[in-house]
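As the next step, I selected for study one protein, both as residues and as discrete backbone shape codes, as given directly below:
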Amino acid sequence: MSSTNINHTHDHVFLGSAHDENAKRTLWVVALTVVMMVGEITAGYITGSMALLADGFHMATHAGALGIAAAAYGYAKRHASSQRYSFGTGKVGDLGGFASALILGMVSLGIGVESVMRLLQPTEVQFGTATLIAIAGLIVNIVSALLLGHGHSHGHDHDDHGHAHHGNDNNLKSAYVHVIADALTSVLAIAALLAGRYLGWVWLDPLMGIVGAIVIARWAWTLMGATAGVLLDQTDAHVAEEIRELVEKPGDATITDLHVWRVGPQAHAAIVSVLGEVTANADSIRERLKPVHEVSHLTVEFRPV
């Protein structure tokens, strides 16, 4: 039986290629979010708008979640070469994303409960002032989305063979989802405030809060599922299928055990146990798997028949 790794000496730094750039973008968005958060919460209390208050408190928790994302980038970078982590710190961002998803879920629950209470017990709203603040919040959200969206749009790279590098940075994705959720609540708040001011539909303000809560909860659930899969080392079916096909296609080797999991935004690890004929060995199996560019850390165990 023989066993070999793809490199004789190598590090375990599996951070995304845009790690530093995404970290800077996130810090900028944290600063913008904190400034707008203070303004919206203050204006919400003064004007009595539930939609505006919901948007402000929503933004407050987003500031915390975005702070988690920024901290995750910093921690992953500082400890990227630490021997304490067997496969590096490439998944720290997914941990930050999962924490952000939990916060997003709690935010949606809080907004929903408060909106139902306001729907049952309406309060006076200063529609004009509240609308101006909500518009300012939307502008901040759009700027933040543009800052984060550039990095988010590059989540899938392709190699020369056309293979997709499924390199979603879940830390950046969580920050992006938080900002988009903020933008949604701002739009709903503006619509509700305008309807209340010009049509007298006071009930629409808390109703929009409920709608926003439902949509945000759905986003939180989706993000939680994506990050949990990475944290629990869920098998990447696409990569596993490609590995199995390349190893077994010549007909002289059979995979007896296969583990494929993500260790970073653009990196996978794989352990391949093979039972093969004398025409194959660990080195030849490793050569067959060179086209699988998603795998950055490969271990091959070979046993002759």
Remarks:
- Residues 170-199 form the longest helix (30 residues).
